[in-house]
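User: structure tokens for Glucose-methanol-choline oxidoreductase C-terminal domain-containing protein, please.
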Amino acid sequence: MNIGSKPESTYFTLDVLGRYICNTFDEALANSDPTTRAAAGLPPRSDMQPFDFIVIGGGTFGGALAEHLWFRSTGSSKRILVLEAGPFLIPEHQQNLPTLGLGGEVWGVPWNSNVSSTGLAYCVGGLSIWWGGWATRLLDSETPASVWPPTVLKELNDKKLSNGDNGYFRQSGQQLGVTTTNDFIFGDLHAALREQLYKALDSRKVAEATPLASLPDAPPVEILDTAPALTELAALLGASLPNPLPSTPAALAQLEQEFRNKLKLEAPLAVQARPEHAGFFPMNKFSTVPLLIKAARGASRESNGDDVRKRFMIVPRCHVKRLDVKSEPGGKRVTAIQTQRGEFPVASGCKIIIAQGAIESTRLALLSFGEDGRIGSNLMAHLRSNIDFQIPRTALTGLSPTIKALQSSALLVRGQHKFKKPDGTDDGTVGHFHLQITASGLGNAANPDSEVELFQTVPDMDTVKQHLLATDSKIVITIRGIGEMQPDNPNSNVTLDLDPNEVDYGERKAYVNLKLTVKDQQLWDAMDAASDELAVALANGGKVDIISRNPTTQIVERNVDATGLTTALPYRIPSTANDAGRRDGLGTTYHEAGTLRMGDDSSKSVTDANGKFHGVKNAYAVGLSVFPTVGSPNPMLTGIALARRLGDHLTPRGPTAPPPASNASGSPTASPPAPDTSGPADQ
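Assistant: Done. Predicted tokens:
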């Protein structure tokens, strides 16, 4: 048995981080199960307890939930175990570190599909180490009350919960850092591009852009419990108040609304460059790895290195194959977890939370609970397109010619498309999309430091090569369109592969069917058209250079009208290496969702409003799999909100306990943590 091993030394490194943060499978068993402890030759302990919560998947949402469970149970003896299929890789988001150029070291595709897929990041923290950081909030129209449980919608959207805590969208925004988004992206380029974008939308140059006045306030405004003064709005924008101020109440109100609307264009990025409280470091770009490290080391400190009393353990490189289930009066119960390292028993009071990503979570549910016609249905993902082009800096009328420093900008435009009947009239329904605008320029990008700077400032790392084409006279702009797919498509689902030879760790692989509906195709076309309209508006009558991503990043047309984007970058998924199609493949957006959808009606959903599987007493799901609809935003904000909500449900706080404050990571804390003087995780 591997119990109490020291940090391993490789040819290059001493694995201190992995050993201090993680436990082995044998350590978790021997310090929670008396039979295994006896077999290991360890002395019996009368104070040994089984784990109260076992989280399967230590990636984005499993990691966030596990840390929240650990904090919520502070002062109790409740124990949390995280089983992660991959290794410990790096301690935070890779953009918080010097440029590593991480490749495919931990990526894998464990399923088969009718479309190509990027698969999963098998490591502690999962995809949160790579994600772009856009954390946009779902609109009410993207979460229809006819399919989302009303209690969930209320608690997501409310400013305050009944216990005095912030609503879950607010909590999630604070944890991610989007409530202070303007502390990261600012400067002359950003201000000039935002002003030009605002004027373009105000004059309806992007026909299906959602009017700014109809959108909710930007996160830094919405999070405020009192209405902000005009000076506060100006500070959030990084703008100056006009001098003199308007003299009439109506004109002042108009100026306030203009400031609010301009703030709605700010990219809601999960980057915290300034701490919320004195004495803390800012977390920079959000990842769940620091949360897991905090919980693991905090638990080690609490127990003085005694694994029997330690409340939180992470076991890496542990693939969960299936769950053993027993039928009981009132429903089924998970009794054991089968892994490639052996069986892990589940105590009668233990809760199992499946957090492996939508497809693998669905596969585990199908293997463990059986096929019922609901598990695996409602599969959705995102429609995604990209256009890259250069504009002359003179196209931005508000940009001073004296500015030379390399700068970046990130802005957001939301849109709605009205679906049509075959006769061309509106059918009364809409589809949602949004456009993520990233710009870089004003410096000499041939400078060797440019890539380093852009790597840490451009939200989407896969656009760095395009933005290196920026010069002191040209600004590179990327418009990434992301649209929702329709729910309840009978042709999109996750099943078990019918070929018995297609297995992963001895169990049948999942098979993914992901197909477009007629409405999906309509929305994708409309979104691409909106991107082109926006490009024309930003070019402001000037010529552009069009950049293609295939087969390599290169300028394919120079000094042409911006309207040429429509033909130079066609509305299609590339079919060959040289195809300049702007669309990404359906399986490449990382955002599969909906296959374990939550709902109050057990005949139409897989999990209840808290994510508990209907008919299973102690099994829950968290993450995109439980979304009834996917909307157009990156699912991070909603997924973290639902993870925090589930954590609160599983560890209810007494009615007289006050709501905790928040620290720089967004997780509640009563005071700054004490210094960590404990040793490795196995002590």
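User: Anything notable?

Assistant: The radius of gyration is 25 Å.
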